[in-house]
């Protein structure tokens, strides 16, 4: 079932229930009221009849009362009065049989002084009347005119009005559900149009601040991300093939030249050395690429352990100083928390080692071996590592591209590198649910702030 | 020794240098209750005063970074710090300030020697005149201000600020 129909029904069903309850209540309370009213009417009739028929009071003007009754009392359909002297008959078997009334009716009259009974629209009211001739039971009966006509009319009116209200509300709810789901249908149509060829298309998000607008905006941001990653992917492939081809071309060219004619031993050696250097470059590039691919979100499970970040940073410092004697790395532990448990994170040691050595090595490289400070601290739920160098920095306009694979800032031409380190590091930090923030001022230095959630026991 | 110290703050990371230095220079057995105080003009609107909440005002002023930086300091000097509290002062008079310091049993005030406070003039005001006039001992703390650093406003600013921190 479509949501639109569902909403319509959901809207209508409670409405219908409420409406019928309302109608039923009105009908039955009216009926009850009209019954009570009619019984009261019969009681008055019975008393009047008693006065006329039984009281032979010469002082009372019976003729006048009779006239009054005939003049003002409307004749009820099948109106009848019965009189039974109370002393003479103790049991009312015969009477109840002739009138078709249950014996309990008479018993109630004797006990309570009055009683009501209703049989097939004929209403009976019995009372005890103290006349001059003695005690009598007077039974007045008549057909209920109101019951017959008014209630039927009321029933019809209520039924018709309920149906009318139902139809009107059905139309309104249909219109509303259509109105509500119109933007949704529009979004669906629009999203269906978007494929990999026209990823630049966006949904129209109005300026209104409602849920459907939020949905459109969410779709748009998702499309933004998809488009960016799509482009990055495309760029990555072209860049990677270009990067890999450069050393390969060099090797092939060198080999071609050297094989064109016979050469001396030295020349061969030199050519092979060049080829070796190029092949090594190729090798390091492919290895970096492999790492980048491995650390991307590919669903592979890496082994995570409890790691103390200060030890890890010391390891990184040692390794980097071994690689290049000129590297100067100052570990600044002045804000190290007193509780050593606060610098433990849940992570993979190789990957974190790689990430930190990338950042610190960048710092050393781009600051021409000036000292690089590495500081460690902890807040209540994350561990902060701050790496600060006083190197060439990154131009502000290029800061947003630094995580693109193979991107290199415009001021790094004289430095070696191929732009895989930072994206790789970011992948690793993201895998550890951390954040990396790079702030830089050109020609002054760069500060990298990394925070990783603390290991919780 | 248990001490309650008062510092003015403008909720920038750099202003925390006073605290960092004060803690670094303190004795081993000191135990501090720290109050970071900020002078705030109260609104004149009755509606604002009706729904006045100190915590709400503080939350508006304090950034996530500042909060984190406070935690970093607190973890570093975990055994010296009993509590760090951020508070606002809304009085106008010297006697209001004096009763504030009395009520909070302040033992000393720490002030930066040369620091450009970064106040929003519309909402906040400088408490230093009040502090200077109060009878409490005042410690001046200086450090090299680097105005143009890449990590301005980040937690990282706390780590390298030329403040020597021993102990």
Automatic annotation (TrEMBL), chain A:
<feature type="domain" description="HAMP">
    <location>
        <begin position="178"/>
        <end position="231"/>
    </location>
</feature>
<dbReference type="InterPro" id="IPR003660">
    <property type="entry name" value="HAMP_dom"/>
</dbReference>
<dbReference type="Pfam" id="PF00672">
    <property type="entry name" value="HAMP"/>
</dbReference>
<keyword id="KW-1003">Cell membrane</keyword>
<keyword id="KW-0418">Kinase</keyword>
<dbReference type="Pfam" id="PF00512">
    <property type="entry name" value="HisKA"/>
</dbReference>
<dbReference type="Pfam" id="PF02518">
    <property type="entry name" value="HATPase_c"/>
</dbReference>
<dbReference type="InterPro" id="IPR003594">
    <property type="entry name" value="HATPase_dom"/>
</dbReference>
<dbReference type="InterPro" id="IPR005467">
    <property type="entry name" value="His_kinase_dom"/>
</dbReference>
<keyword id="KW-0472">Membrane</keyword>
<keyword id="KW-0812">Transmembrane</keyword>
<feature type="domain" description="Histidine kinase">
    <location>
        <begin position="239"/>
        <end position="456"/>
    </location>
</feature>
<feature type="transmembrane region" description="Helical">
    <location>
        <begin position="158"/>
        <end position="176"/>
    </location>
</feature>
<dbReference type="GO" id="GO:0000155">
    <property type="term" value="F:phosphorelay sensor kinase activity"/>
</dbReference>
<dbReference type="InterPro" id="IPR003661">
    <property type="entry name" value="HisK_dim/P_dom"/>
</dbReference>
<keyword id="KW-0597">Phosphoprotein</keyword>
<protein>
    <recommendedName>
        <fullName>histidine kinase</fullName>
        <ecNumber>2.7.13.3</ecNumber>
    </recommendedName>
</protein>
<dbReference type="InterPro" id="IPR036890">
    <property type="entry name" value="HATPase_C_sf"/>
</dbReference>
<keyword id="KW-0902">Two-component regulatory system</keyword>
<keyword id="KW-0067">ATP-binding</keyword>
<dbReference type="InterPro" id="IPR004358">
    <property type="entry name" value="Sig_transdc_His_kin-like_C"/>
</dbReference>
<dbReference type="GO" id="GO:0005886">
    <property type="term" value="C:plasma membrane"/>
</dbReference>
Automatic annotation (TrEMBL), chain B:
<protein>
    <recommendedName>
        <fullName>Universal stress protein family protein</fullName>
    </recommendedName>
</protein>
């Amino acid at each position: 079932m479509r949501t639109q129909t569902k909403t319509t029904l959901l809207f209508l069903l409670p409405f219908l229930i409420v409406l019928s309850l309302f109608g039923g209540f009105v009908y039955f309370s009216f009926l009850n009221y009209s019954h009570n009213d009619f019984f009261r009417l019969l009681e008055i009739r019975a008393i009047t009849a008693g006065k006329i028929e039984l009281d032979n009071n010469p002082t009372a003007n019976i003729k006048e009362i009779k006239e009054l009754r005939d003049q003002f009392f409307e004749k009820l359909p099948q109106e009848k009065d019965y009189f039974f002297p109370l002393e003479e008959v103790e049991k009312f078997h015969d009477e109840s049989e002739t009138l078709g009334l249950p014996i309990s009716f008479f018993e109630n009259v004797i006990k309570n002084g009055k009683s009501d009974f209703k049989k097939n629209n004929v209403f009976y009211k019995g009372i005890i009347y103290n006349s001059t001739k003695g005690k009598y039971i007077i039974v007045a009966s008549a057909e209920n005119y109101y019951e017959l006509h008014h209630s039927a009319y009321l029933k019809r009116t209520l039924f018709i009005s309920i149906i009318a209200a139902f139809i009107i509300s059905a139309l309104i709810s249909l219109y509303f559900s259509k109105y509500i789901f119109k933007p949704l249908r529009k979004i669906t149509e629009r999203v269906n149009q978007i494929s990999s060829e026209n990823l630049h298309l966006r949904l129209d998000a109005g300026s209104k601040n409602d849920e459907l607008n939020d949905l459109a905006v969410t779709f748009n941001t998702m499309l933004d991300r998809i488009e960016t990653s799509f482009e990055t992917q495309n760029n990555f492939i072209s860049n990677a093939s270009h990067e890999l081809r450069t050393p390969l071309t060099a090797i092939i060219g060198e080999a071609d030249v050297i094989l064109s004619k016979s050469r001396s031993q030295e020349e061969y050696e030199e050519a092979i050395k060049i080829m070796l250097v190029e092949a090594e470059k190729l090798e390091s590039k492919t290895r970096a690429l492999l790492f980048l691919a491995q650390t991307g979100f590919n669903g592979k499970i890496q082994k995570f352990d409890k790691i103390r970040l200060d030890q890890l940073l010391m390891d990184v410092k040692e390794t980097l100083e071994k690689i290049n004697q000129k590297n100067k790395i100052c570990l600044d532990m002045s804000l190290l928390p007193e509780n050593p448990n606060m610098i433990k994170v849940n992570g993979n040691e190789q990957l974190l080692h790689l990430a930190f050595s990338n950042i610190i090595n960048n710092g050393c490289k781009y600051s021409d071996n000036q000292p690089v400070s590495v500081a460690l601290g902890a807040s209540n739920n994350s561990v902060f590592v701050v790496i600060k160098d006083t190197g060439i920095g990154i131009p502000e306009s290029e800061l947003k591209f630094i995580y693109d694979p193979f991107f290199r800032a415009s001021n790094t031409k004289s430095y070696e590198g191929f732009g895989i380190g930072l994206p790789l590091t970011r992948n690793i930090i993201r895998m550890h649910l951390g954040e990396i923030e790079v702030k830089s001022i050109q020609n002054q230095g760069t500060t990298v702030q990394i925070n990783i959630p603390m290991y919780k026991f | 020794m248990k001490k309650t110290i008062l510092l003015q703050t403008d909720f920038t990371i750099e202003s925390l240098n006073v605290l960092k230095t004060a803690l670094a220079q303190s004795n081993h057995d000191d135990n501090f209750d720290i109050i970071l105080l900020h002078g705030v003009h109260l609104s004149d609107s009755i509606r604002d005063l009706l729904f006045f909440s100190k915590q709400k005002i503080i939350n508006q002023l304090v950034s996530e970074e500042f909060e984190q930086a406070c935690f970093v300091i607190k973890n570093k000097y975990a055994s010296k710090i009993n509590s760090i509290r951020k508070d606002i002062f809304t009085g106008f008079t010297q006697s209001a300030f004096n009763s504030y310091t009395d009520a909070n049993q302040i033992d000393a005030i720490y002030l930066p020697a040369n620091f450009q406070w970064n106040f929003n003039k519309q909402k906040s005001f400088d408490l230093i005149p009040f502090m200077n006039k109060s009878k409490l001992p005042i410690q001046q703390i200086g450090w090299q201000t680097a105005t143009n650093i890449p990590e301005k406003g980040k937690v990282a600013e706390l780590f390298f600020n030329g403040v020597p921190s021993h102990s």
